[in-house]
Automatic annotation (TrEMBL):
Protein name, as recorded: Nitrogen regulatory protein P-II
Organism name: Ilyobacter polytropus (strain ATCC 51220 / DSM 2926 / LMG 16218 / CuHBu1)
InterPro entries recorded: N-reg_PII-like_a/b (IPR011322), N-reg_PII/ATP_PRibTrfase_C (IPR015867)
Domain of life assignment: Bacteria
Length: 101
């Protein structure tokens, strides 16, 4: 039985289109986006989408075969390493038991 991974990409909403483009470039069209999330990453840094700190975060979820997930993670790492500035961009991967397709 194929091994599957749940890939969660937590990112600044400004990256959403570009990251979805990376998924599409790999033929991945099945994903869920939770847009416009507000978060707090440190005690002194609140991400509250206001005039002082504009913007929001998003989470992109997808379930992929292990080998496809590893390939996408490498593409996202390359993207993150090429960025000139720091914004929210985290990748979380967990194993899943997939009973239904």
């Amino acid at each position: 039985m194929e091994e599957y991974k749940l890939l969660r990409i937590i990112c600044d909403s400004s990256l959403e289109d570009e990251l979805v483009g990376i998924l599409a470039g790999e033929g991945i069209e099945e994903y869920t986006i939770f847009p416009s999330l507000k978060g707090s990453w440190e005690k002194t840094k609140k991400h509250l989408d206001n005039h002082v700190w504009p913007g929001t975060d998003s989470i992109i979820f997808t379930v992929l075969e292990k080998n496809r997930c590893e390939k996408i993670i490498e593409k996202f790492k390359m993207k993150k390493e090429s960025m000139d500035y720091y914004i929210t961009f985290k990748i979380l991967v967990t194993s899943v038991d997939l009973y239904l397709k």
